[in-house]
Amino acid sequence: MSQDEAKALERVVDGRSWEEFCDTLKAAGAAVLADDTPSDPLVRAEGWRYLSRLTRAALDTFVEASDAQAPSFQQTTGPTIKMGMDNPDNVYLNAPVNGTYEYRITGQRGTVYYLGFGTQAGNYGATGSLDTTGYLEAKDMRIEADGSFAIHLSSKDPGPGVNWLPMKPETRMVQIRQTRIHARSEVLASVQIERTDGPGTPRPLEPARLDRMLQGAARFVMGCSGLFKSWADGFQAHVNELPRFPHEKAFAAGGDPNIAYYHSAFRIQPDEALVIEATPPECDYWNFQLANYWLESLDYRYHDIHVNKGTAVTLADGSVRVVVAHEDPGCDNWLDPCGHVEGTMCWRWIRAKEHPEPRCRLVKLSELREELAR
Hints:
Order of helices and strands: HHHHEEEEEEEEHHEEEEEEEEH
Low-confidence stretches: none
C-alpha cells in the first residue's frame, strides 16, 4: 500500500473525508454571498438551490457512477440540475472513461436533429476547465441502414472504416449532446458503452477511492459555481447586448467546438421589453435562450424561455425578432423571463457560414406595442 493510500484510509476511518467534504460545500457558499453577487432575494435563493443541484450532480458523477472500468451513461444535467448555460434543446449524457483504456459505444441513431460525441479531460473542480480531447458528429459517422452504429473510443487511431472517437491518456469523460428542434416529435438516440480491452465489471468499493470521490465531488461544486459566477460577472460589462463570447473560453469549459456563442446579461424592468433581432445565416442550427444569474436555463418545462431554428417565426425578409418581456406584448417569439428582472442570455450558431452579432434594443413595452400595431 502506498503512503497516499494509507493516508486516505486514515481519513475515511477517522471521518476527515466526510468533514472536509462538508467544509468544502460550506465554503462554496461564498459565491452566493460575494459582494458582487446581486442581493436580490430571488438571485440568492436560486444560488442556494444551485449549489444543492451541483451537489446532486457531483455525487452522481464522482461517487455513484465514477468507475471507468464499467461505465454507463447518466443524465446529470436536465430540468432540475443545470449549469453553464445548459441548452433547453439538448439532452446531455455523460459516462466516466479512462484514456488509457478502450471502449465501444453502440446504439440506434433515432431522429434527433443533432447528435455529437465528445471526450473530455479535467473537470471544473480539479483543473478549472473541461478540455475536449476528441469530437465526432453523427453526420460524419458510418450508420447502418437500420439506424444502428458503433463507435470506437481509444487514444490510438484504429484505422480506416471505423467510427473513431479520439481520446488522450488524460481523458476522463465522454459526453453526448442530443439537440432537438422539435422536442415532442424527435426520437432520441439510444446508447450504451462498454470497455473492450479489459474487465467490464464494477470494482468493489475501495475505502481509499471513497476519499478521492468525496473530495472530487466537493471540489466540483466549488469549481463549477466559481467558474460560471465569474462568467456572469463578466457579462455585466455589456448588459442588454450580445457580443461574441471568446471561443477558447467556451471550448475550455467543454463547449461544442462547432458552436459560436454570444453570451451576456439582461436587465429588464416590468414596463420594458428587450428586442433581439438577427438574420440567421446558413447554419445547421441556432437558438436563443434565457437563464438566471447562475447560468441555469429558466424553467423551460412550463414557460417559453427559448426559440430555435425550427420553432421561431421569421419575418418576410428572413430575419427573426425575439422579444423578452414580463408580459406578452402580442407578438411572435415572445419569451418569458419568469419574474427575473435580471439574468443571463445566450445566442448560438452551429456550423454557420457567417456569425452575425444579434442586435439588441431596450424599449418601453408601450412603445413596442405601438410599433407592432403599425
